[in-house]
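Posting for a labmate who doesn't have an account.
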Amino acid sequence: MVKYSRPRHGSLAYLPRSRASRILPRVKFWPKYDGEPKPLGFIGYKAGHLTSFYIDTTPNSPTQGLEIAKVGTVIATPPMIVAGVVGYGEEDGGLRELTRVWSKKLPDIIKRKISTWRPNEDEGIEKLKSLKDQLVEVRIIGMARPALAGLPKKTPDLLEIKVGGALDKALEYALSKLGEEIRIKEIFKPGDFIDVIGVTKGKGFAGVVKRWGVKILPRKKRKGRRVVGAIGPWKPPYVMYTVPRPGQLGYHRRTEFNKRILLIEDDGLKLTPKGGFPHFGVVKTECIVLEGTVPGPPKRPIVLRYPAKPPKIVPEPPEVTYVGLVK
């Protein structure tokens, strides 16, 4: 039987497969949230993996009510400081920054990130309140300190995080938290589904076999074996984007939807295995355990976001029986 077609190698959904522009990824979309005002995101640092045993509460699951074991990812989540507040207005169907307020209670390490940092809290708050009628979105500038998580990095990580809820309450909440700490428990709780945004492990320049999974050609092929058989037809007179080509592999910005929080632990030492996590060490701060894996190597910053496409059926919070290494 002659085979006339076969599925292509590799997915075109992740093009372009280029290097991420920054190690702490931007959040390109913030979902709608109508509850009590709170930030819709948090910054964490990947520590490692453990085995999680918990009672399955998923409705109609074959293992409902039984104890199951799954891999869990430990993410260190040191408290963030609300370094500033940003107000956005609408312009041409998009967002336009109206004003930005910086707190005057920030530690000096902020100058490692912004050398020209100058606090404008007093006059900035008055200007922000005067533009209240023009606001369409309020965001806080979250400042995460990786040193609190046990990392050798001293430079803080800054990220604009949308404040969900009614606009007037969101503005009031953001100004009340200016210069203060926020913790992971104020935003998420065990059993919540969240989106994980991170940068994958970089693998450098790779050929088409490793990058796209194309078939290795027979030994007698004249122009090479680890190449594509043809790069396209005569017309159009250029190489189409659908043709597998060598290039960057890894270090891509990726979003994984609906990761379930199994556990939130105040003391990371309780979850740290003997000898510490490989390539990370000891978790010295608050941490969470996510069901499954997340992209990136240890110590990589991870953005935890309120779910953009939450599941229709949300099971009860899991009853975790054991988290740790299994011998």
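Reply:
Got it, the structure tokens are right above this. The chain has a mean pLDDT of 93.
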